[in-house]
């Protein structure tokens, strides 16, 4: 598969300031050495608990933040080295859909203005007299009526507002869409509709998605591959099916074992892995493997040696795990994806 986006050793540390002199007294290691590729036309899901760095990673991929170090190549172009006109061109190609459809749309603007906003920043994409028609096309593309163009955000439901957010996200014909918890604020019944819309648009427009979320079942449904983050690092990454049914990293195994089991006949068959303690502070991550303070498999070695992402031992698919003792563990399938077709 051909990569459209390729991240190498991305690092983002934020200084912590303290004292009257506001000196730097520490660093929050929000993203701390993350590498992966996004293939053309695929959806890469990124999951993890809050504070694992997934949202910061999304902002780095959009270059809404400058990295502390590391590189990002988009379609052969070194993103963090671009300036001026070249960077503006890149901004068209990588767009974002935000989490909260209630706060990300300006309540005083019409839907037409909101969706047309990207054309103000990139006026060369659609000529002025063609804009209204283009916005109406976009409304239709996301399943809304072209007549909605003069309405305001409060006249729409949460699901419809997220469709408006998506229309804005695809207005400039981007190649990559960074989706930061795009359905988390929506009712479960509406989530599937929005996810289905995103899949339809992906096929029609040839988009590649990075889909960031904490909800394991939503990520499973939409993703081709999945990366699991813990404290600023990638713990495991691989084909969706392998990561979900035969995870090799103890953290992924624990996360999946905690997903509720709806079927009572299966409930007793699955052993729940209970993690010790809370997620440590990203300002002071544990030595060695960051997960060692909570891991049920931790050994002495784990406190000292940082595990690298390596191909899983039995070589099943393209599946990497950052664990000294990575081993596949069958997880009884309980994630219901039937709600979305
Ligand atoms: Fe657990 Fe050690 Fe593997 Fe880290 S390296 S996940 S502490 S077994
Ligand atoms: Mg897909």
From TrEMBL:
Transmembrane segments: none annotated. Keywords: ATP-binding, Nucleotide-binding, Transport. GO terms for molecular function: ATP binding; ATP hydrolysis activity. It holds the Pfam family oligo_HPY. One of its GO terms (biological process) is transmembrane transport. The keyword Acetylation does not apply. It comes from the Bacteria. Residues 5-256 form the ABC transporter domain. The keyword Transport applies. InterPro entries: AAA+_ATPase, ABC_transp_ATP-bind, ABC_transporter-like_ATP-bd, ABC_transporter-like_CS, Oligopep_ABC_C, P-loop_NTPase. Belongs to the ABC transporter superfamily. This is Oligopeptide transport system ATP-binding protein. It comes from Pedococcus cremeus. The lineage of its organism: Bacteria, Bacillati, Actinomycetota, Actinomycetes, Micrococcales.
């Amino acid at each position: 598969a051909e990569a459209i986006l390729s991240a190498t050793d991305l690092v983002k540390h934020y200084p912590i300031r303290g004292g009257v002199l506001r000196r730097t007294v520490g660093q929050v290691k929000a993203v701390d050495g993350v590498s992966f590729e996004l293939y053309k036309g695929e959806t890469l899901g990124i999951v993890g608990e809050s504070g694992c760095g997934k949202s910061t990673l999304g902002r780095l991929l959009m270059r809404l933040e400058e990295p502390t170090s590391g590189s990002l190549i988009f379609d052969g172009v070194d993103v963090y080295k671009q300036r001026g006109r070249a960077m503006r061109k890149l901004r068209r190609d990588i767009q974002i859909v935000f989490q909260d459809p209630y706060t990300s749309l300006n309540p005083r603007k019409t839907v037409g203005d909101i969706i047309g906003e990207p054309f103000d920043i990139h006026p060369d994409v659609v000529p002025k007299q063609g804009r209204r028609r283009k916005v109406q096309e976009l409304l239709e593309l996301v399943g809304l009526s072209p007549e909605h163009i003069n309405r305001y955000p409060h006249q729409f439901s949460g699901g419809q507002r997220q469709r408006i957010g998506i229309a804005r996200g695809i207005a400039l014909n981007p190649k990559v869409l960074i989706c930061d918890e795009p359905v988390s604020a929506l009712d479960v019944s509406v989530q599937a509709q929005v996810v289905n819309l995103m899949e339809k648009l992906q096929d029609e427009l040839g988009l590649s998605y990075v889909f960031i979320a904490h909800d394991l079942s939503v990520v499973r449904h939409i993703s081709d591959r999945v990366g699991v983050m813990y404290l600023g690092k990638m713990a495991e990454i691989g084909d969706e099916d392998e990561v979900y049914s035969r995870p090799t990293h103890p953290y992924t195994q624990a996360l999946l074992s905690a997903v509720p089991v709806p079927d009572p006949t299966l409930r007793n068959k699955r052993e729940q892995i209970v993690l010790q303690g809370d997620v440590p502070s990203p300002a002071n991550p544990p030595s060695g493997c960051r997960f060692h303070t909570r891991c049920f498999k931790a050994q002495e070695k784990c406190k000292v040696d940082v595990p690298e992402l390596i191909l899983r031992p039995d070589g099943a698919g393209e599946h990497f795990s950052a664990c000294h003792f990575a081993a596949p563990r069958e997880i009884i399938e309980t994630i219901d994806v039937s709600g979305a077709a």
